């Protein structure tokens, strides 16, 4: 008999957003998301002023674009370190269309991320099935962007830093712990929701952005999350645990 292997990964950010929106508990943390077309982008810019345009199947921050409508009525977009300005929406969209080739893109409400030394940062929360087959948060870490970039990814010049340090720059030690606990619970809720929709999933890595009002937003859920980022922390406990469970789930086997 042929063994059916339940899928363990999902690359489409669009499908993953839909999974999140099906959960009442998680929905409130999902930034508004639409597929890219000219009308949707115009509407989203009027509503949110700043949005992110991303490949539906991107990784490592590649091809991620930040689009803005300025107070003066001009439109800008920024890819990598280069920002371009346009006097009309149509001129901007035309230029954008040329650079985005033939891939599918989505538009997401832009989060005004917290900063550390004037660089934006976001958070990776690692949630894995443990040896008892229960979901467990095995790691969390902050990722600080390169000063000129709009993405925080490690493979895009982002710098991993302990979350205690980053949140601790804003909150007292007690409130920092409480806030991190809140993020861990959110990570668990997301894992449970993914499990309900895709029983084969064993690990997820959630990218969480915290805005200037301290509200956490789910930027992305990764279904093949990188445990090696935790090796950047001085304390190796998270790294050891995350890697051990990832190996246990059959990843990184030689
Ligand atoms: N809606 C958003 N608001 C603010 N920053 C964002 C947003 N979407 C993406 N980013 C930034 O871009 C990075 C890469 O986007 P992400 O959706 O995680 O795609 P990738 O698969 O390339 O990692 C994020 O880690 C974050 O730093
Ligand atoms: Mg990401």
UniProtKB/TrEMBL annotation:
InterPro entries: YheC/D. It comes from the Bacteria. This is YheC/YheD family protein. It comes from Paenibacillus whitsoniae.
């Amino acid at each position: 008999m042929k063994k059916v292997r339940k899928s363990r990964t999902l690359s489409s950010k669009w499908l993953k957003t839909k999974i999140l929106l099906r959960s009442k508990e998680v929905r409130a943390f999902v930034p508004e998301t639409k597929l890219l077309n000219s009308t949707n982008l115009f509407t989203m810019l009027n509503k949110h002023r700043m949005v992110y345009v991303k490949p539906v199947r991107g990784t490592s921050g590649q091809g991620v674009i930040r689009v803005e409508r300025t107070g003066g009525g001009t439109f800008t977009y920024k890819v990598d370190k280069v920002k371009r300005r346009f006097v009309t929406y149509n001129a901007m969209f035309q230029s954008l269309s040329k650079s985005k080739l033939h891939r599918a893109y989505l538009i997401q409400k832009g989060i005004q991320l917290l900063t550390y030394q004037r660089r934006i940062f976001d958070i990776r929360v690692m949630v894995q099935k443990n040896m008892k087959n229960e979901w467990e948060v095995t790691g969390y870490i902050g990722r600080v962007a390169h000063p000129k970039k709009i993405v925080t990814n490690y493979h895009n010049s982002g710098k991993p830093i302990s979350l205690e340090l980053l949140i601790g720059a804003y909150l007292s030690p007690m409130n920092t712990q409480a806030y991190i606990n809140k993020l861990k619970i959110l990570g668990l809720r997301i894992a449970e929701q993914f499990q309900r929709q895709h029983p084969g999933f064993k690990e997820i890595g959630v990218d969480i952005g915290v805005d200037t009002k301290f509200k956490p937003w789910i930027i992305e859920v990764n279904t093949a999350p990188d445990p090696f980022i935790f090796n950047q922390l001085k304390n190796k406990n998270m790294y050891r645990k995350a890697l051990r469970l990832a190996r246990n789930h059959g990843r990184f086997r030689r």
